[in-house]
Fold each of these.
Amino acid sequence: MSDVKNTALTPAEAWQLLQEGNARFVAGDTAHPNQNAARRDELVNAQNPFAVIFGCSDSRLAAEIIFDVGLGDVFVVRTAGQVIDDAVLGSLEYSVAVLDVPLIVVLGHDSCGAVTATREAYDSGVMPPGFIRDLVERITPSVLTADRAGITDINETVVEHVKQTTARMVESSRTLADAVEAGRTAVIGVTYRLAEGKAELVSGHGSL
């Protein structure tokens, strides 16, 4: 994979590479590409990641491991519950406007603690203290949408949150919206199953 540049990849091709890596991970046949000294030296002066992975900070959701990629392959942004804020949007805009990355993956997972905390706060009417409250407030619109659809299961709520996050991301950033509209970039929502190790596509904006 070390000779693959992001400028040579379409969003669909970038997603295919991630799917192939995840399939290796699920099968226990990981290749650990681009993780040696030669690759490290190659990246000293430049980077050409072929995808952005915006995922939850959960310790079980290490993007490079899940998708079996290495140094320089993916640009990673993580917050608890994959919550969007200005710093996240700035990082994503940088990846598209400066690095020309063709694919943004919003990565959620089952049994998400941030989504669980939000559901509990919504059901009880009691908000958590400190800055955890900020996380809950940002996830609450997704829980409200799920609730209106009759969804109360946490894992199904996570799927809804991933869908809402991909939509909000494109709506919030003119840079991302323009890139998607022009076909330069796609934004997709993916959920990860902790027990199986499998990443599954659940939503998308742009062509794959």
Amino acid sequence: MSVIEASEVRYAYPDGTLALDGVDLAIERGDRVALLGPNGAGKSTLLQLLGGLLDPDGGTVRYFGTDQPPGEVRDRVSVCTQNPADYLFNPTVREDVEYGPAQLDVPPAEADERVDRLADRLGLEGLLDKPPFRLSGGEKRRAALASALATEPDVLLLDEPVSNVDAANRRAILDLLDELAAEGVTLVVSTPDTELAPHVADRVVLLDTDGTIVRDGPARAVLTDTGLLERCDLVPPQVVELFSRLDESDPPLTVAGAVERLE
């Protein structure tokens, strides 16, 4: 069943610039999808439309096979935007993580349990009573992610979740996304990074700067199509480029895959 279905979605920015033009996209339960494209391709805009943060100028977005408005599924669909400040606006991290459950009238005792569980999972135990502005960039990312997860959503939409974070925070976030996928959470990640895409997605939706989807398919098929990626102003994954130059017809997508192949 489609958890989110966009049909003929069109969106233009206030200055009239067309961001998305007739996009059709179905996100299925349990999918791990990367919205991939160069800067200006409308990835973040599409993510916000899928999450109900923006209303389309044309077309429709449906949730869980119904015509429920976005406000009625906010406990099931959560968006973690590129800017952690969108989630971190209370005096303390704890209050930020509690904010979502409070809007859904989750009993305080249950909300506290969720906060403690997420703090343990994301390594935020010593940060809950700190003001968000005192956190490092990576800590802010993890705190924002905790806030997005506090409603216990079925679908998590993330915009560039590991941009501008150090290696340790990147690894912690990617490990958590793997765990969430294993638990059945549907994941949609917006990114311009072809190196990241195989770590977060089994399926890649490739957008171009004309506001259209040019390819939607398995990650391997899209990320090894070096000609198509280059036409969309994207650099193919380095491992793919290396093995392609060695005339490998089925190159690995990651360093770990390359090591396994070479061994």
Amino acid sequence: MHIALSIAALWTMYYHVEIFTNGEWNIFIWPCLVIWIFDRLLRLGRILAFNRNPLNTKATVSYDANSKLVRMDIDGSKNWITPKPGTYYYIHVLDDVLYALQSHPFTLAYVSSKTSASSSTPLSPIGSRPPPHRSSSSLSNESSESDALLPPSAVSHSPSNLVFLIRPYDGFTSRLKNLCLLRPKKLRVLIDGPYGHSEPLYTFPNILFIVGGTGVAVPLSHLHRLLQADSAVHSVKIIWAVREHAFLESILRDFKGVLGDERIEMEVHVTRDEEAQDEPMGRNLKSVRIMTHRPDVRAAVEDTAKDAGQARVAVVACGPALMADQARKATVEMLEKGYRGLEYFEESFKW
């Protein structure tokens, strides 16, 4: 669709200036054409780098009715570009014939071992080395959950999948949900990416993530890098507002190993599920606490700044516009009060 619109735009531009017989305005057409061709070649290079047979990339898509979440696992076994936290990919679903030319951007949540999306096998967060500090409770887990923290070569020789967490609304995401409504489904997809850049959050001693819904993909994608041996991180606090308790369970089940690290503290605010209760997550996840009220964003930023003093703090927001506005405003207020170590980062899933 984007290609067709671009060609149409260039074509109409050409006919718009063709009336000038001396061709004095054609010079403005050719730079546009060269830039467009260069952009297409770069995109083609990214597509081929992901899979040299790009029309045969496989994805498993599943829908969880309890968490109201679509999960897409894309085979990344032939990908030449190492996935990085915070990057995003354009996805074409080739099996959706009427809309196959449409591409839709999604932020990478994490990388998993190559298994079915419906299974509960543990995931490998984006990164390469295990964290240096782990709590005694996480060390006591001899199950394969701890393997998610090992270098990929140490876990297994099986290739990895790129995992995307998608909240279905209208249009493409609704069609995607309908495709896998009854059971997980295999699809052919075309992947264009990665795009964007990865913020150097690992250089900050203190990090505060304030996220809502599928915005939890942002801290999840960064966690493993933040816990590596060369990271300056001393504390990571994640405040996550989520509607359904089932969504929470599906995420925590796969990240028990990482969230057991003693440097991580997580507050989960379940805002709509009446069955949720204020409680810790049990012995293995003492750092995770469930709450039933909406998060106080201003208080979270203020408390983090005061605890850090003049040390550097990264405040990262990804969620509804109101949540991001509150986080931004609170960060500015604390800067005005003399806490100069704060830096604000904002991720957005909107165009």
Amino acid sequence: MADKIVILTGAGLSAESGLGTFRDEGGLWAQHKIEDVATPEGFQRNPDLVHAFYNARRKQAAEATPNAAHVALANLQEQHKGEVVIVTQNVDGLHEAAGGRAIHMHGVLDGALCAACGHRWPAPAEMATGQICPACSAPTARPDIVWFGEIPYHMEQIADHLQDCDLFVSIGTSGQVYPAAGFVQESRMFGASTLEINLERTDTSGVFDRHIVGPATQTVPAWVSEILG
């Protein structure tokens, strides 16, 4: 039995809750270039556009509900005799809404961040250019999201978990965005077994010991049942 399990979750986990991935046609991401809405430079060029984009994402996420995969992972955290650590690339709150706990390496949609002093506070439903920071009064509020070119949050904590886990599981992530795409190699280096659960094979599939292919709402609950016996 794996005493300590580290699980990395990506956009594919929340897709069945109606939250789109980068590659979905017709979704929010399809209407914008990444460099315009998900980089510090894009925010400097056109903060109105960036706020409008994340206001739409925030509204979409607030209306979403956890699916069977989120619920299964929350149950695993609750019932597994060992430790279960979830690290998520997702900025929605669906792990928590299902009763689970997650380390949010890319930030959260319902958070605001001051670009001047680093203060964080709960984001309103709609943010706007020039919004005032409640700590330093600077008009520099931005979404508390890690954009491309920025360093993900909690990396030291995540590295510690990767180094002492028995099983590393990647669920619903494309394996294209670093540093998360390198977590499988890091955990393997320290002796962990590795499992990929995804709708299809990915760029990093060849590195994993085992693969389960199919929709997250079917594959994740089945795998959790297997672990819990």
